[in-house]
Structures are given as C-alpha cells and as structure tokens.
Specification:
By secondary structure, the chain is an alpha+beta fold. It contains three helices and seven strands.
C-alpha cells in the first residue's frame, strides 16, 4: 500500500541491486569464543538507572546484556557503532548471551575505557576484520515533488 502511494503521489521508481561495500566481518578471535548460551537463572540483568561515560571520555557506547544470535548482534553493531555494516562470518548458530559492553566511540580517546574492537575481543572472543562484500541496496531512479490535488492533507503533502 505504501509503495503504491509513493508511486502515485511522487512518481517514485526504484530498483534493487548489489554493490561492493566496505564492511567489517565479525569472526571468532584467536583464543576462541567467550560467549555462552543464555541461562536466565544466571545471566546478569541490565543495569538499573542511568549509565554514563567516565569523566575522561568524550564519547562512549554501551551494549546492554541480552541474548541474541550472531547475525542479530552483528547487525546491532553496524552503522550505529562502527559506521559501516558488520557482517556475521562466525559460522555460529543458536543464541548467545552478550554481557554489558562499554567502549569508546571511534575517534575518542580514553585511559579508562577500551576501544570497541578491544572490548569485543576481550569480553566476547569476537574480532572484526575489514573486508568488501556485495550488499543489497535500493536505488531511487526517479522522484518528483508531490502535486497539490486540492485536499487538505494533515501532513501538508
């Protein structure tokens, strides 16, 4: 229904394709995986209250404790933290418990908080390596400004 609206209202046309994209591949680090299957009776709960960065950090990030698949975990690390897609190349199946991770954002410095790759390796036993992968993308071929059709649309379109 939304695609029909976009086509009719904005004369939007698009196509899907693949293009080589810089990615980070998530793999099991030397030394092996440190994550375990979830155990609701033993797994720590997310911390209560508000977490804040130490005073010597101008930008840090948190990954809260949760059970997840490797594919979902890689996806959650993607653009939000690393600014590019993270692709699961661990070959691991099933669900794993990821503990609280605290690390500095890329470009920040700190003596008290590790970098994301270091924290990821030390706590989870996972590593990231740069690569290029064919990623599916949506390409907009044509779009026009919506023409007023005289209705009093609340969105102003």
């Amino acid at each position: 229904m939304m695609q029909t609206l976009l086509r009719e209202r904005f004369h939007l046309t698009w196509h899907r394709t693949s293009k080589p994209t810089k990615v980070l591949e998530m793999v099991v680090a030397p030394g092996g995986l440190k994550l375990k299957p979830p155990d609701p009776a033993k797994d720590p709960k997310p911390p209560g209250g508000v977490l804040s960065c130490p005073d010597d950090v101008n930008g840090c990030a948190f990954v809260f404790p949760h059970a997840t698949t490797m594919a979902d975990f890689a996806g959650s690390l993607s653009r939000r933290i690393f600014g590019r897609p993270v692709v699961d190349k661990t070959g691991l199946t099933g669900t794993f418990f990821v503990p609280l991770l605290v690390f500095i954002m890329p470009g920040s410095t700190s003596q008290s908080v590790p970098s994301a790759p270091t924290e990821l390796r030390d706590v989870t036993g996972l590593a990231l390596r740069p690569a290029t992968d064919d990623m599916k993308v949506l390409v907009i071929d044509h779009v026009e400004k919506a023409q007023s059709d005289g209705d009093a649309s609340p969105s102003g379109l």
